[in-house]
Design brief:
The chain is an alpha/beta fold and 245 residues long. The chain folds into two domains: 114 residues, FAD/NAD(P)-binding domain, CATH 3.50.50.60; 123 residues, FAD/NAD(P)-binding domain (3-Layer(bba) Sandwich). 20% of the residues lie in helices and 28% in strands. β11 and β12 form a beta hairpin. α4 runs parallel beside α5. The radius of gyration is 21 Å and the shape is elongated.
């Protein structure tokens, strides 16, 4: 994708923007470590800063991240290390239910850990999840220490009962977090319309924000698909706008 962009004349500069001013056009932005200098300007800005999956900082998480632990079942669920293996999903909302059901295509069994005594998912999704033969939902349960095998892959984790405090070490070759994402919008705080969770609000079906000339694409405004190609696809109408105005 980068090569394709460069083929059509795109100049790619690898810098970190530390400050922006969207109050008037041309928009101003400052590169980190160069904020004392004159700002650079742009007639239009596409915000595609993404969102980061929330982590739980469980013991062993850093060691087995991407070696058994993931925050995207759709992205990683079909990886061979998860085939016909016991898998775990942490979360109680619609996303957790969707990811757990998706993982039943690949894993031998899926256990969903829910901190509270009820699912937050919609009634329809909760019913589907609880009725699935390859899914076990464990309420009042959280994750504990994660351990692995000689290959450096996750093999076990601890389940903790939040009411009794009891712990159980179980076999688990995959752990998927479904506890939400945090959009990377701090740079634009109080300058552009966002929802209660910080996602940039765009006009339905478009990449248009409330500021003319400022567009948003990808995870920074998309809570559903969370895929890189979604962001790329959203650029198409924006680029068409640039080419025809």
């Amino acid at each position: 994708m980068r090569k394709q962009s460069e083929k059509f004349g795109t100049e790619i500069i690898t810098e970190t923007v530390g400050k922006v001013d969207l109050s008037s056009r041309p928009f101003k932005f400052w590169v980190e470590n160069k904020e004392g200098k004159e700002p650079q300007t742009a007639d239009a800005i596409i915000i595609a800063t993404g969102a980061s999956a929330r982590r739980l900082n469980l013991p062993g998480e850093d060691k087995y991240w991407q070696n058994g632990i993931s925050a995207c079942a759709v992205c990683d669920g079909a990886v061979p290390i998860f085939r016909n293996k016991p898998l775990v999903v942490i979360g109680g909302g619609d996303s957790a239910a969707e990811e757990a059901i998706f993982l039943t295509k690949y894993g031998s069994h899926v256990t969903v850990l829910v901190r509270k005594d009820a699912l937050r998912a919609s009634k329809t999704m909760a019913k589907r999840l609880l009725a699935h033969k390859k899914v076990t939902v464990r309420f009042n349960t959280v994750g504990g220490e994660i351990t692995g095998d000689s290959r450096g892959l996750m093999s076990h984790m601890v389940f903790k009962d939040v009411k009794t405090g009891s712990e159980e070490k179980v076999e688990a070759n995959g752990l998927f977090y479904a506890v939400g994402h945090d959009p990377a919008t701090a740079l634009f705080k109080n300058q552009i319309d966002t929802d209660d969770e910080g996602y940039i609000i765009t006009k339905p079906g478009t990449s248009y924000t409330n500021i003319e000339g400022v567009f948003a694409a990808g995870d920074v405004q998309d809570k559903r698909y969370r895929q890189a190609i979604t962001s790329a696809g959203m650029f198409t109408p924006v680029l068409y706008f640039f080419l025809t105005h």
